[in-house]
Amino acid sequence: MIMHKPVLVDEVMKFLDPKKNENFVDCTVGGGGHAKKILEMTKPDGKLLGLDWDPQAIERAKTRLSSFKKRAILVNSSYTAIKEIAEREKFQPIAGVLLDLGLSSDQLQASGRGFSFQTNEILDMRFSPDDTQTQAKDILNDWPEEKIREILWKNGDEKFARRIAAGIIEYRKTKKIETTLQLVDIIIHAVPRQKTRIHPATQTFQALRIAVNNEFNNIRIGLRDILDILEPGGKISVITFHSLEDRIVKHLFKRESVDCVCEPEMPVCQCGHKAQIKLITKKPILPGAEEISENFRSRSAKLRVAEKI
Ligand SMILES: C[S@@+](CC[C@H](N)C(=O)[O-])C[C@H]1O[C@@H](n2cnc3c(N)ncnc32)[C@H](O)[C@@H]1O
User: CATH number of the domain at 133-212, out of 1.10.150.170, 3.10.180.10, 3.40.50.300, 3.40.640.10?
Assistant: First the structure.
C-alpha cells in the first residue's frame, strides 16, 4: 500500500510543463506520485525513466505505474549513475528531470530499516543495503565523539549535538546501541524537555540517515551529471527538505548560471567558465498553508527550478 503523499505536485508540473510525447527522468521515483502525473501529461508516447536507490521503493513504483506499461522504465540505482543509465537505456532527448530528495513516508513507516523513531527497529538506515556498507548503528557504536557531534550538528542542525553525542558515548561504554528505541531513550535523557510539536529525536535521525547515505555528496554529483544530459530548453526541478541541501542546490545553480566564476579581483576572466543554465526560480517555491495543513511533512519543502541553455 502506498502511503507517501507527494509534495508541491502542482508547482512541479507548472515548471516542468510536461507535454504530449516528451521524455522525463524522475531521479527519486519513490512511491511514483510525481511520476504518475508526468506520465499522464505526456501520453500517448512520452516515457519516464524512474530511478530509486531503495529496492523496495522500486517495487512499489512498479506496482503503481504498471498501467503505463513500457512508458515507465524503472531502475534500482542511485541517481549518481544517471548518466550511464540514460545512455544504456538510450533515453533521449530529455525534456525535464525531477529530484525529490530525502525519505518517503513509506520508508519511514514500513521499511524495517530504522528510519523512524516511532517503531522499534534495527538502526540500519541504508537506502541500498547492497551498495552501502556502514549502517547507522556502526556510526553510533564505532565513531569518535567529535565525529558524531559534527554530523548531528552539520547534517541535523541539532542544537543539543554536544549533549546527545556525550549521551551516546556514555551509553555505549556498557551496551551496544542496536535499535531505534535505544537511541530515542538516549536522546530523551540527554536533552532538556522542550515545548514543541517536533519530537526531540527528529534531527538526530535525519543527521544519521544523511551520513549513512552520503546524501549531500550525492546531490553534488547528481546535479552536475543531470545538467550534462538535459536537452537545451530542458528543465531541472529539485525539492529539498533540509537547509544545507537547499544551499547546495542554490550555489550550484548560481554558479552554473553565470559565464565567469573568477575571483572578483581578477581583471580579465581566466576561468573560461560558461553558463549552462538559466534560473527559473530566483527564490525557492514553498508549499502553501493548505498543503502544510494536509501534509505536515511538506512544511520544510523548497523547490528550485532551472532551464538548460
Ligand atoms: C521523497 S521520496 C520521493 C517521492 C516521490 N517523488 C513520490 O512522488 O512518491 C525520496 C526518494 O528518494 C530515494 N533516494 C534517496 N537517495 C537516492 C539516490 N541517491 N538515488 C536514487 N534515489 C534516492 C529514496 O529512496 C526515496 O524513495
Answer: 1.10.150.170
pLDDT (tens digit, 9 = 90+) per residue, 94-124? 999 999 999 999 998 888 999 999 999 999 9
Average pLDDT on 138-143 reads 98
CATH of domain 9-106+215-308: 3.40.50.150
Ligand 1 nearest-atom number relative to CA 6 = 8
Pocket of ligand 1 (CB under 6 A): 4, 6, 27-28, 30-34, 51-54, 57, 78-80, 100, 102, 104, 127, 218
- Counting other chains too, the contacts that 216-221 makes at CB distance below 8 Å and 24 or more residues apart are 216/155, 216/244, 216/245, 216/248, 218/78, 218/79, 218/80, 219/99, 219/101, 219/245, 219/248, 219/249, 220/248, 220/252, 221/80
- Write out pLDDT tens, residues 232-253: 999 999 999 999 999 999 999 9
Segment 150-158 shows an average pLDDT of 94
Distance from Cα 190 to the centre of ligand 1, integer Å:
32
